[in-house]
Design goal:
The chain is built from 23 helices and 20 strands. It is of the alpha+beta class.
């Protein structure tokens, strides 16, 4: 046990943040394999079970990750459930053979290593110090013991030894670099013709039986996903700030203790001075000055300056947009230009990058006025806002603890918890797994909890969910609508339109494929095709793999074709997402030239190739371990 951790009891945080500390695997980290009981199994690896519940949770995690990354472009039908489950299960088996191998190879993590890792996580710290109560509450909220969680951390760190051992020994040869550059930096001289589906739409005849058959063949297209309506209790700065009792004496006392925060309003002169200072510090960094040392001496952020500006690991949603946009545009080791936010001027350094997280440092230069020129009456409103925020932060941990306990003790209602804490029960409209959430609930953890078996099917309150800094929620399902398919008669117009679109796209593909055969056989040229059929042709010339003005499907097809012989052309065809057909011609190939690499680009390319080689070698190891493992896959086909 990590007794040293348990001796530092002070606060609270929820499990959602715990996920952030798991040492990452290709798609996700190891979770606990405890407490599965007699649940249905989908696979067994060397005697260890992967249950249906574990698989379903991972599938939801993957969909949530894709929803966050793709935003409005996300569609549930992009990931067919049966195929997705098979792919996710395959990744889980990879995880398990690595865990078992680490165990058999006697790879261990000491108490000191595990303690150092856990205590260094910013989400388990308060005022820069490890907070034992926050840690304990997080583990308890997940339904685990401290020993179980600590064992999970040890497992993760042991497996990381395998990955790090491979990654640390991989290097790219000059031949590797040259080969990749020739392939990935090549350009192709391209022409293409668009065969529009719209040109065939008028020829489609709507037959009632054919439309009905189309509807029955494509049920996923008319799927109405499973939905829920929620009631919830939310703890955040606004909710708790409204509960804070305010009087003039308390405000004045707070003001006297924080006078420097309420100095005279930022004048144009103070703003200009702050900007100039930030620009001077940035120039010093570019001239070789140590970032951390400059942060210690100059940063106006009291929470990070003593640590050299270290902000720890940061994800999207944790910082203000201007700061995040600049930080997440940086490569590892890079330093931003001066970035302005409401807090002042920032210089940001990306120390390390892991998937969607960034380890960051920053220097803050705030515009400062003269505290002696400020009267309490002039800034009373700001003082009250700051005081409420300060007191709300103090209330948060106590209220979170009480909310978790009361909601657990009264699992069939939120009423007692609402009454005990003096906060109102709020409600949502219908939500599916793919629905955008209200801003104050915008976290994948909310959807995960809403559709979890104990909340959805057993009617219990959820556990306390930490969905942001100083923001937590407990929810329950009040209405549930299972997944259905839109009735044919109620949606006939939509279905008929889809039928016409599909038939027109099929006709365009047939015409395009006929034209493609004529090109390949030499019966017609591309120019003759265009003039005789009045199709749209484009000649973008030499293009790279990510050329913005060429449809993605056309680029994929063009770069998949065999390079043509000199003086000839290679032809291909592809259907677009919109239903049009493209006839593609590649006239020449220009390969990437290693001699054109700059001194900055060379090490970046070396690192990129090294990562690819490491990934390939890691997969080779996994494949070897899987070949020797006893694996029994029991997943039923959808």
């Amino acid at each position: 046990m990590l007794q040293a951790i348990r001796e530092k009891a002070q606060g609270w945080i929820a499990w959602a943040i715990v996920i952030l500390i798991s040492i990452p695997f290709a798609l996700w980290g190891i979770q606990e394999y405890l407490g599965v009981g007699g649940e249905p199994e989908v696979a067994e690896v060397d005697g260890d079970a992967i249950t249906e519940r574990m698989l379903d949770q991972r599938v939801r995690d993957f969909r949530d990750r894709m929803r966050n990354q793709l935003g409005e472009a996300y569609r549930a039908d992009l990931f067919q459930e049966g195929v997705l489950k098979e792919q996710v299960l395959d990744a889980m088996i990879d995880e398990m053979v690595l865990v078992n191998s680490a165990r058999s190879w006697n790879l261990r993590t000491s108490d000191a290593q595990a303690y150092s890792f856990i205590s260094s996580v910013p989400s388990f710290q308060r005022d820069g110090q490890f907070d034992q109560q926050m840690y304990q509450a997080a583990v308890r909220n997940r339904g685990m013991s401290e020993a179980g969680f600590e064992q999970t951390v040890r497992q993760d760190m042991a497996v990381a030894q395998i990955r790090n051992g491979i990654e640390a020994t991989v290097f790219a040869t000059q031949n590797d670099v040259n080969t990749m550059l020739r392939l990935y930096e090549q350009k192709r001289k391209l022409r293409f013709v668009r065969v529009p589906a719209d040109a065939f739409r008028a020829d489609v005849k709507i037959d009632a039986d054919a439309v009905r058959a189309y509807y029955e063949k494509h049920p996923a297209q008319y799927r109405v996903p499973e939905q829920v309506k929620l009631n919830y209790l939310l703890l955040d700065e606004s909710t708790l700030g409204g509960l804070v009792e305010v009087n003039e004496n308390a405000l004045m006392e707070y003001y006297e203790g924080h006078k420097s925060e309420f100095s005279a309003a930022e004048t144009p002169q103070a703003i200009d001075q702050a900007k100039k200072k930030a620009e001077q510090l940035l120039q010093q960094i570019r001239d070789g000055a140590d970032f951390a040392e400059l942060a210690k001496q100059n940063s106006d952020d009291p929470g990070s300056s003593e640590n050299g500006g270290d902000l720890g690991w940061v994800e999207r949603g944790m910082m203000v947009p201007q700061f995040e946009d600049a930080a997440f545009a940086l490569d590892a080791g890079a330093v931003s230009d001066v970035v302005k936010t409401d807090f002042g001027y920032h210089i940001i350094q990306a120390v390390e990058i892991r998937d969607e997280k960034r380890s960051l440092r920053h220097i803050l230069v705030a515009a400062k006025g003269n505290a002696d020129d400020t009267e309490f009456a002039d800034v009373r409103a700001q003082v009250e806002t700051a005081y409420r925020k300060f007191e709300a932060e103090n209330l948060y941990f106590d209220y979170a603890e009480r909310l978790a306990e009361t909601a657990y003790e009264n699992p069939s209602t939120l009423g007692p918890a609402a009454e005990a804490l003096g906060i109102a029960v709020q409600s949502t409209d219908w939500l599916s797994r793919e629905s955008p959430l209200p801003a104050q609930l915008d976290s994948p953890k909310v959807i995960d909890a809403a559709f979890a078996d104990d909340v959805l099917n057993e009617g219990n309150n959820s556990q306390l969910l930490e969905i942001g800094p100083q923001r937590a929620v407990v929810l329950r399902v009040v209405e549930h609508a299972p997944e259905t398919v839109k009735p044919f008669e109620d949606n006939r117009v939509e279905i008929e339109q889809d039928f016409v679109n599909a038939q027109a796209s099929e006709a365009a593909a047939q015409a395009g494929q006929q034209a493609l055969e004529a090109l390949k056989s030499g019966q017609e040229t591309l120019e003759q095709l265009v003039s005789s059929r009045q199709w749209e042709a484009k000649e973008p010339g030499l293009v790279g793999r990510n050329h913005a003005d060429v449809p993605a499907e056309v680029l994929d097809e063009a770069f998949s074709l065999q390079p043509p012989a000199e003086g000839a052309a290679a032809f291909g065809g592809v259907v677009s997402a919109e239903g049009d057909y493209f006839v593609v011609a590649v006239d020449a190939v220009e390969y990437g030239n290693p001699d054109k690499l700059t001194e900055t680009e060379k090490p970046m390319l070396d690192a990129q190739i090294g990562r690819k080689v490491a990934t390939a070698q890691m997969q080779d190891l996994i494949n070897s371990l899987r070949a020797r493992a006893a694996i029994d896959i029991k997943l039923k086909e959808e």
